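Subject: Sanity check before I submit

Could someone independently write out the structure tokens for this chain? I want to compare against mine line by line before I put it in a report. The sequence has 193 residues.
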Amino acid sequence: RPRTEIDSNRARRGLPPERAMKELHLGRLSPKRSMRARMTLAFTLSIALLMLAADSALIAYSRHSARKNAERLLLQGAAEMQQELVEPTIKKRPLAQFAHEEGSELRALGLNLFLLDARGRVVVAPKRFAAAWPLSEKKWRTQHIPWRGRSFVLALPWERRIRDLNAFAFALAGLSILIIAACALGSWLLVGK
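---
Independent answer below. Compare away.
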């Protein structure tokens, strides 16, 4: 049989080399150390699962809340637009002028207003987003308001909000890793030898 190197402490205890190698291979340590390792592992895993559940819930809630806020804002802007479109003063103003005036008011809410003709071409758009048409669903949340063969489109920039939500998720994951590491170290020291 080929001789293998084994831990000298095990050899002194009188374990046969095959059993010592088997214990070493299975990762079994002395009973006291094993209890410490098992307790630390159990505590760390339970904290990790708890942090995973809490992080997942927070991230899901923040994404849901952002979507609901965007929908609420778009519906509020659409309601204001429809109210303005019903007023008799709109007939006295050119539609492009009306769109510019309403667009400046809606920008205070974070919304952008586009006016489309009957063919779907942009007639009026915010200056910084004029080249953004057609709007990507990944980058914008929109609400269409048809009016006399034309349509107004309220648009909320969404790409920046997604980046903010992703940054929040990464920060939360980093914080969770630090908390798990601190808990593992604390439990290792607390259990003792």
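---
OP: Matches mine. For the report I'm noting this point. Confidence is low (pLDDT under 50) at residues 27-32.
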